[in-house]
């Protein structure tokens, strides 16, 4: 397939990254369903090109073994890719998508599975492997992409089979009344086919159970404890990084991220504290309707040359406690993630709004990204007694025992916003 240079031919390797780059709905509805059809069509062409009708696309179960499989590290095989910068994805894994209260499927609903699974482990796995895997545009060029997405597809199948009130829209629901496109040379896949792996696609996974535990994190690098991974596993909290003074609520200032973790203290003042408290007192889910959400805003975000190589990401927390003892579940404080994958995804969304799906990729990297992290619900969960300041922590997670040193992300304007509640 690599030897076939005709990018319009599905028998070539280059056809599939082009399809993903043009049609993939990252951060949008049908993320899981579109990729299920993508895997199905790709596997069919693997069989045609190889002449083996029984060839099966495997999955990488990183919940059992977070190390990149040995077959992909052998430089004498086509599965090897020299640009990867990480080999351990422990820090990307989470049990949150499989919690008992995650019973809805689609975006826009509370306790929804699809957006949670995409947020983690999907995106952080891309980030920690690095190289082209940390790029939305180019990741399908890496053979590791396919076993990663087969794993994501298996986790969806496991969630669907788990019961306990978990449900996705019925096959008769209008939610499935569309077809997924995979380029001019491939027949579209009706969305309803993707509701199960067995009825239309004729396959099932050898293990369709949800993960119940996380693997141990990698050991810290021996050279410097300051660079030790500080990510949390099994719902525990990381140590709070050293704090720096940030801009007051509602104003912005530049911020640069590197190999260290850091916290940014944002002074509220009396008026700011009142706005934050008013937002917290609104009924859950009412903040957006009343134009009063508290949010962390990263504007004009750019990757440095080092940052583009990936192999890392940052967990973004609000009011991370100084001591993790009895502080509660990590999810109470976690706002989201920021890394190369999320930044490129944000650039793509911005370009899509201006040019439409077909033209969005041409200018996706031409301007800085904007990322917003809603914080009102997290503040409601932790309910800070003191409101003289808010603290935003960027906790570095690495996919290598020896992470590179240097600046990775430049943020033109970091701010915490709290609009007046109407």
User: What gross morphology would you assign?
Assistant: globular
Residue-averaged pLDDT, rounded?
90
Residue stretches low in confidence (pLDDT < 50, at least 5 long) are 224-230, 287-291, 356-365
* Radius of gyration from the alpha-carbon trace, in angstroms: 22 Å
- Provide the structure class: alpha+beta
Q: Separation of termini?
A: 58 Å
What do you see in this structure?
With 422 residues, this protein is α+β, with helices and mostly antiparallel strands. Helices cover 24% and strands 16% of the residues. It is built from 7 helices and 11 strands. It has helices at residues 15-23, 31-50, 113-129, 144-161, 269-281, 340-355, 376-382; strands at residues 179-180, 189-190, 243-245, 253-257, 262-267, 294-303, 312-318, 334-338, 369-374, 389-398, 409-418. It has a 5-stranded mixed sheet. Strands 4-11-6-9 form a 4-stranded antiparallel sheet. Strands 1-2 form a two-stranded antiparallel sheet. A hairpin with an 8-residue loop joins strand 1 and strand 2. Helix 2 packs across helix 4 (144-161) and helix 3 packs antiparallel against helix 4 (144-161). The protein is globular and about 70 Å long. Mean pLDDT is 90; it is low at 224-230, 287-291 and 356-365.
